[in-house]
Amino acid sequence: MQYRPLDPGREFLVACLCAEWCGTCRDYRAGFEALQAHFPQMGLIWVDIEDSADHLGDIDVENFPSILIQRGEHVVFFGTVLPDHGLLRRLLETFAAQSVEESAAYAAATPERRGWQTGHNLRALLREA
């Protein structure tokens, strides 16, 4: 699995789920990793879904790049994004501006998001790996 060890002191986990064979992913990677400097409270990791398939549980990636954002144990976002670092930056700014309580409420606000809490908890999956 291609990820840096998770820093338990980081409130957010932001994972880009991609594949090395994907040209869009390869082009996106450097800009994704550069966002770490703008969001020190977030741990950004790159996960090659093919190399890590055994560790991803029920996470099903349908297109690239797919982003998973957790705040603590709450999955607040999972989905495909346009390969535009400015869009991801604004998304991260939005979640960073929420209180912990707002993020928890957001994570539980729809049936889809409630489903992410068990099937897409990447922190839990990485702890088990």
UniProtKB/TrEMBL annotation:
Highest taxon of the lineage:
Bacteria
Entry's Gene Ontology molecular function annotations: isomerase activity
Q: Which Pfam families match?
A: Thioredoxin (PF00085)
Stored Gene3D superfamilies: Glutaredoxin
> Does the record bear Isomerase in its keywords?
yes
Keywords carried by this UniProt record: Isomerase
The protein's name in its UniProt record: Thiol-disulfide isomerase/thioredoxin
Q: Which organism is it from?
A: Niveibacterium umoris
